Every structure is written in structure tokens, then in C-alpha cells.
Input
Amino acid sequence: MPRNTPFTAIDVGTTKICTLVADLDETGDIEIIGVGITPAQGLRKGIVVSVEETIESIRASVEKAQRSSGHRISSAHVGVAGSHISSLNNRSIVTIARHDRLISQEDVARALESARTVSIPANREVIHVIPRGYILDGQEGVRNPVGMHGFRLDVETHIITGATTSIQNLTKCVQGAGIEINDLVLEPVASSEAVLEPAEKEMGVVLADIGGGTTDVAIFMDGGICHTAVLPVGGNHLSNDIAIGLRTSFGAAEELKTRYGYAIASVVDGVDNIQVASFGTDGNRTVPQRHLCEIIQARVEEILNMTLDEIKRSGYQNRLPAGLVLTGGVANLRGIDALARDVLQMPVRIGTPKLMRGLVDAIHNPAYATSIGLLIWGLKHGEIEKRPRKKGGGIMDVFKRFTFWIRELIPQ
Output
């Protein structure tokens, strides 16, 4: 049964948990009405390593989103990532036996279900079966065969699988926080909904979502996804390199990266110095900013070269005229797009999530591409009732939120 809006997305990342609550405005567009962002605990490289800490992090994020939206959250679309993710392409065929030979939605569902029956190890399970395109009686390039006539329907699919234990642990944590999962969505697939243009997907484009613990890579061609991979390196590795290289704490390294970091060390004035907090009683030390940027550049180049290797491994290297779109928290690093153009020798742009209405000031940032993409995915592919709110309902919405806040403040 379709659900009434509002609807919810939870991005369970290595460094942060982001919960978004959205509704549909009068025109049917997504309006964000609740935001809950908390630091992530209990995750490493996108994988749960402590169930208790992860549950508490998710619960804290959900509670913040509930307070800001005035709605109690019971279910959500949840992002999944981690180095355990793998993918393959598969084709399936079904015949149309009815007398009229008219393709129905049930025939498409049969074709997709047939594609799901691939041979995978017992310790893995299918997360997505995404149609890339249909072939009807040998005619390629069919986008939606429903309503067309034909004898045989082929479907090209991209199948994404994950380790069963990792998926079960994530599911346990979300449910442990009191949230039912509407759907698990691979994070680069979700991010693509927020930052890629249809023309880019049609021509051929790479999405690299560089988060705290992983770099998620997805390649699109002819309007569909054709390759995905998760690389076990991300923004935390930059901070760790800085902490070791400058002999400072991880937190101080994060601040230095954000404040003074630049992806190309040669453009930084060699005479500029920065203050670095030392361990022990040594106090602050003066370090050339260029030295900080040299540490950052070395790791960013490694991430970009790993991305390039994955593009070569996919076989699509020379078929991506739209180039690379960088998103995720590390995409905020100054100069990273110029360095990526130099390393990959292709067009590069920073992918900022599409503008939405509502509480967007805090999340109009590449770091929240996955979170916003999960909302879009839920609206397009989930069981969300696409019914906008009636005009004039604003006062009632405010009253509902006010009463919810009051209930939250009164001890039970």
C-alpha cells in the first residue's frame, strides 16, 4: 500500500549519520522539513564494527530529525556502502505467450526477477537489480516496453550484491534504533539521483563519491548504470596522513584539512605558515602550509589513481565524454577538481545536490549528496504516495510540530 508523506532517508556514513524528513509541496516537489546530523560511531569504511555504538548514533540522528520536523519517524530508505559491495551485468529473456502480444508491467517484472537468479556465493545477497535497457524482438534501445507489442523481451540489468553479514548488521542497527527499512539503496546510486544530469548519464559519466571511509564509484552510459565499485579509501585517510605527518591529533588534522587544505600544493604560497597543535606540553608549532598541502595532494592523487584504475577495469575508459563528477565530503577540498582533471585527463566538475525547498541551508553541500539522493530514490522507486499537500495546510503543520515538540519535552 502506498504511504502518505512525509517520508524519510537515513545515510549511515563512516563519519556522520544524516536523517532527512521530506514532504511534497503544493507543486509536488520535494520539501525538506526535518534534518538530523550526528557524528557516526561504530562504523569503519562503511561497515558496522560496533552494533551498540551504531544504534546510538542512528537513534540520535533520528531524534534530531523528529524534533526539527515535528513528525515521528517509523520507516526510512537507508543507504548502504562498504568495500563488501560488488556488481555484475546480466541479461534475461522472457517470452510473451498471450494472444495480443502486448507487454505488461507483469512481463517486465518477470524479466527482472529472472535476471536476479544469478550464481553468487552463499554469503552474498542481491541488493539491486537495475534495468539498463530493454530489447524487444531484437530491437535495442527500448526504454519502457510496457504497452508495446512483441514476442520476446530481453532486459539488460546491473546487479549489485553485498556481503550478507554486513547487510544484516546494518539492518539490525537501523531496526535497533526503532526504524523499519523501506529499502536499502547503494549510496553511489542514491548520490547519482542528486548530482547527475540526464544528459551526462546518456553520454557516459563517472560518479566518484569520496566520503569519510570509502570512495564509491559508479559509471553510467546510455542513460543507465553499467558499473559500480567501492574503494576502501576516503577522507579519513587524508586526516590520518596529516595527523601522522604533522604529529598532531586526528581532530586537529580534520580542522587543518578543512581550513588550510588545498589539493595542489604548488599553488600555495611557500612563505605562508600555519599553527599546528602538538601532543604533550610542546604547545603549538609553526608549519609551512605547503607542507600540509603536499601531504593532502599525495593521498588525493592516490584516490584519483585508484578511481582511474577502476574505470580502466570496467572497460569504459574511452566512452565517457561527460567525464567525472566528484561528490561527497572530500569534494569540498579546494583544488580537487583541477587535480582530478590533471590525473584522469577528462572533464571534471563538483557535484552539488540539486536545489530543494525547506531546510536546505545546512545540506546544500556535496557531503549530503547521498542523503538527498535517497529521498529522490524513495520518491521515484519507493511506495511513497506522490500526493502533494493541500494548499492552506501550513497552520495545521505548524500546530502538529508544536504539539510534537511539547510531547518530546514532557517526561514520560
User: Anything to note?
Assistant: The radius of gyration is 23 Å. DSSP finds eleven helices and 19 strands in the chain. The domain at 86-162 is CATH 3.30.1490.110 (Dna Ligase; domain 1).
